[in-house]
């Protein structure tokens, strides 16, 4: 399934999402690797099958390398864990938990297999999907250290927001039809 086919499956009330999906697919602020990595990481973060399939097909057609696709999926996987853990630390009133070592393996963050800034951008997108402010702050600061402009970070956040919304609409429609 292509993104165009996916857009056609969206209900009329989600027309803005369809238009945003189309415009973000043509986004030029990010490199193709950054853009399609954001799409793929965000789709995997939400996990809606039709969206994952369409984004994977589009990313592959756009030339996203196997290494970059694997790294984008790794960003979704590691942030799926980290976003829960660090969001919990932020939400728990007892500050003692923030002094304890995480004791969670996160080796992929140090060696993602792609440019560090690209991986950080994908982690930022996934952190937006998963709603972890602590992780958003950490990854945004790391992106700034790498000289990534605010417009690029915003583009990644916009992709995450639209992929999330499209996924949720399609899931809700599937549930209503069942």
UniProtKB/TrEMBL annotation:
Sequence ranges assigned to domain Carboxymuconolactone decarboxylase-like in this UniProt record: 95-176
Pfam families: CMD
Alphabetically ordered keywords of this record: Antioxidant, Disulfide bond, Oxidoreductase, Peroxidase, Redox-active center
Record-stated family: Belongs to the AhpD family.
Annotated source species: Phenylobacterium hankyongense
Positions of the catalytic residues: 132 (proton donor), 135 (cysteine sulfenic acid (-soh) intermediate)
Enzyme class: oxidoreductase
Name under which the protein is recorded: Alkyl hydroperoxide reductase AhpD
Record GO biological process: cell redox homeostasis; response to oxidative stress
UniProt KW Disulfide bond keyword: yes
Catalytic function, reaction form: N(6)-[(R)-dihydrolipoyl]-L-lysyl-[lipoyl-carrier protein] + a hydroperoxide = N(6)-[(R)-lipoyl]-L-lysyl-[lipoyl-carrier protein] + an alcohol + H2O
GO molecular function: disulfide oxidoreductase activity; hydroperoxide reductase activity; peroxiredoxin activity
InterPro entries membership: AhpD, AhpD-like, AhpD_core, CMD-like
């Amino acid at each position: 399934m292509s993104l165009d086919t996916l857009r056609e499956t969206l209900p009329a009330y989600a027309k803005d999402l369809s238009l945003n999906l189309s415009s973000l697919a043509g986004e030029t602020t990010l490199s193709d690797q950054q853009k399609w990595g954001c799409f793929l990481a965000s789709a995997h973060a939400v996990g809606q099958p039709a969206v994952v399939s369409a984004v994977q097909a589009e990313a592959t057609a756009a030339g996203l390398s196997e290494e970059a696709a694997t790294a984008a999926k790794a960003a979704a996987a590691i942030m799926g864990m980290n976003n829960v853990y660090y969001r919990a630390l932020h939400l728990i009133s007892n500050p003692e938990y923030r002094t304890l070592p995480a004791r969670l393996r996160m080796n992929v963050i140090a060696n993602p297999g792609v440019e560090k800034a690209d991986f950080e951008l994908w982690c930022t997108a996934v952190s937006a999907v998963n709603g972890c402010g602590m992780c958003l702050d950490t990854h945004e600061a790391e992106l700034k250290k790498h000289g990534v402009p605010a417009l690029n970070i915003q583009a990644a956040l916009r992709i995450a927001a639209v992929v999330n919304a499209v996924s949720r609409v399609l899931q809700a429609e599937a549930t209503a039809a069942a």
